[in-house]
Amino acid sequence: MAVTAKVQIYEISPGFGDGNSPVPEAQSVKFSADYQDERNKEWAHYTPAIQVLMTVRSEVVQSAGWKVGDRFTLTFDGSE
Prior knowledge:
By secondary structure, the protein is mainly beta. It has one domain. The chain is built from one helix and four strands; from the N terminus they run E-E-E-H-E. The protein has one helix spanning 58-64, and strands at 2-16, 22-33, 51-57, 71-77. It is elongated and about 40 Å long.
């Protein structure tokens, strides 16, 4: 069974390698629940809450044109 969550980007920052040294070729993208128009009412009884952190190559963010505020549908599919 698949469950979808409506998320939006709330922060994009440089990725980090070992220690605290930034890795310029990577970026961390943070997603949170998209509360607009009750978009998560399918899976959330009261207030939907989700946080996802994804670190990707900088060219992924740039080529996709991702920016803070962009909205996505995140699908969790338990099938293998």
